[in-house]
Amino acid sequence: MTRAQSFSGENFSAEFFSATPKVQVFDVVEHEDKIRLVAEAPGMRPDEVRIELLGGVLTVSGSHEEARYVEDRGLDGRCILPRSEHTSYQFSCAFRLPDTINPDGITAGLDMGELTINLAKMPKLHNPEATSQSLHYDAASSGY
Predict the structure, then answer these.
(1) Torsions phi, psi of 84, nearest 5?
(2) Could you read off the pLDDT of 24-40 as tens digits, one per residue?
(3) d(Cα 117, Cα 34) in Å, to the nearest integer?
(4) Distance between CA atoms of 5 and 23, rounded to whole angstroms?
(5) pTM for the complete prediction?
(6) CA distances from 101 to 28, 108, 138 (A)
(7) 36 and 116 in contact (C-beta within 8 Å)?
(8) Of all residues in the chain, what percent are helix, strand and coil, respectively (each to 5)?
């Protein structure tokens, strides 16, 4: 039994002793009309996420903090031992966007711990076949 466990007689949560930094991983899915970025963002609120587009680079960053206060009974069952756990993490990812992305067509949402960013593509220009046409210009009837 570790010293931390002996204070309360039970294990602290795994996050309490974890020193491993969290790395944000995005799934990137390309559709015909958009590119979708999806990442897990458990516990995050919309005000904790920042999305910026500057010089063709999309930067997605976030910061989340959680605090939990618990009172446990000691090993003797009488003594109350307060315990407080704090969890926090930050992330930042940058994506160089292709020229086909419409900067005004970027939307984002955070739902059920999942961050989704949609990057709308610019409409494809219709390139009709080049055709030639003969034009007849009559200087006498033009008025000049």
Answers:
(1) -130, 135
(2) 789 999 999 999 999 98
(3) 10
(4) 28
(5) 0.63
(6) 14, 15, 47
(7) yes
(8) 10, 50, 40
